[in-house]
Amino acid sequence: MKLETETLDIFKNFAVINPSLLVKAGDVVKTISLSKAVIARAKLPQKFDSDFAIYDLSNFISAMSMFDNPDLQFDNDKFVTISDDERSALIRYFFTETDMLILPPEKEMEIPKTNIKFRITKENLANIIKAVSVLSLPEIMIVGDGENVSIQAVNPKSNLSNFYKKVIASSNADFQVYFKVENFRLISNDYDVSIAPSTSKHPGVAHFSGPGVEYWMVAEAHSRF
Fold it and tell me: Between the chain's N and C termini, which has fewer beta carbons within 10 Å?
């Protein structure tokens, strides 16, 4: 089989969240960060016929890149054969055992009802990622001031650090929600966002829903709802 470009893009994004991946039969893949602060779920444009587990997803992607148009043959439960169209060169890439991986929960994550809802465009998403990189800032903050929602690049431990702010939506909600930059690894898309406040049983969590992909991201403890 050939991997669709969208499938490969999802794999590349998931490799940033967790270096390993369990792919189950069907067209849905899920992953969880090693810190368990981020869960991601995507519906792929193609289906896999059987389960397989990759220990080093980035390495697997690099192996496929050795061929201009790689063909994947899943005719063995121990490995996948990656080759060119003529099969004049090939790689036998072995799977790993699932007990070697940190896996997302089987049950779908649900967040409580919330009035904190807004939309973030892929342009605003790209700008905030660029801002935290250029300004060397450790956290992303989403703020509701009772009139507008803004996304900011900040260092919450210093009032003298660099700072970036962009108003992205209107809202009468009042909140300040922080996320570590390393958790904010979303594939380029427009997203509908819902943020549920923390409770005695659950931490605050943001749900990002985009075309074919969803992320659940735990807010930092110093957030205010």
Answer: N
The answer to whether residues 141 and 151 touch, using CB atoms and an 8 Å cutoff, is yes
pLDDT tens-digit series, residues 135-179: 999 999 999 999 999 999 999 999 889 999 999 999 999 999 999
Which class would CATH give 117-218? alpha beta
C-alpha distance from residue 6 to each of 10, 65, 70, 211 (Å): 6, 15, 15, 11
Closest CA to 38 of 152, 205, 224, 211: 205
CATH class of 5-100: alpha beta
Is 15 in contact with 9 (CB distance < 8 Å)? no
Question: In the chain, what are the domain boundaries?
Answer: 5-100, 117-218
pLDDT in tens, 30-66: 999 999 999 999 999 999 999 999 999 999 999 999 9
* Cβ–Cβ < 8 Å for 160, 80: no
With beta carbons less than 8 A apart as the criterion, state whether 90 and 73 touch: no
Provide the pLDDT confidence category of residue 133 given band limits of 50, 70 and 90.
very high
Pick the closest to residue 185 from 131, 135, 126 (CA basis): 126
CB 176 within 8 A of CB 140: no
Residue the block writes with tokens 């779908």? 108
